[in-house]
Amino acid sequence: MTTLAVVSAGLGQPSSTRLLADRLAEAAAGALRGDATVETIELRDHAHAMVDATLTGFPSGTFRAAAETVANADGLIAVTPVFNASFSGLFKTFFDVLERGSLEGTPVLLGATGGTARHSLAIDYTMRPLFAYLRASVVPTGVYAASEDWGSAETALPERVARAGAELAALVEARPAPAKDDPYEAPVPFERLLAGY
């Protein structure tokens, strides 16, 4: 069973950010060959806990479970609203408090929403560098949805969502299974253990 974690940094309820996150998750899960479980994390529900974790260095309670869900997922979909030409502070805070190395090699699909198409490059000049620093494997297609993308039948949004979802599914399926250290794989011979006595 493949697990996809979805991080939505929308502030409203409902929000266009969550709507985009849900569409991306549906596209990615549909493109996977096997069954997939989708775990969605609304960052607005963990805002206070994230500040506490920033101050103490230790996530706790339901926020700890959310952070572990993201760290243990086979793939990640991360979506933020764009404020002042960049990702939201809530979005950045979440990734600041994740344990170092927890996203290394994780396939990630990036999405963003905003009031105007002028902010569409925020994915490439703010989000990609963040996930490159975290050593995640980001899919080529990022999906930005402006306000006009939601009400028009002429929009290319569904096509971009489908393409990005397929790219994430391909990256998740191509990812090698994590190596598990087995302490019993190469046991020390009993004679060698007794040689010290």
UniProtKB/TrEMBL annotation:
Keywords, in A-Z order: Flavoprotein, FMN, Oxidoreductase
Molecular function per GO: FMN reductase (NADPH) activity
Pfam families: FMN_red
Residues of the NADPH-dependent FMN reductase-like domain: 4-150
Cross-referenced InterPro entries: CE1759_FMN_reduct, Flavoprotein-like_sf, FMN_Rdtase-like_dom, NAD(P)H-dep_FMN_reductase
Domain of life: Bacteria
EC category name: oxidoreductase
Assigned EC number: 1.5.1.38
Stored PANTHER family: FMN REDUCTASE (NADPH)
Protein name listed in UniProt: FMN reductase
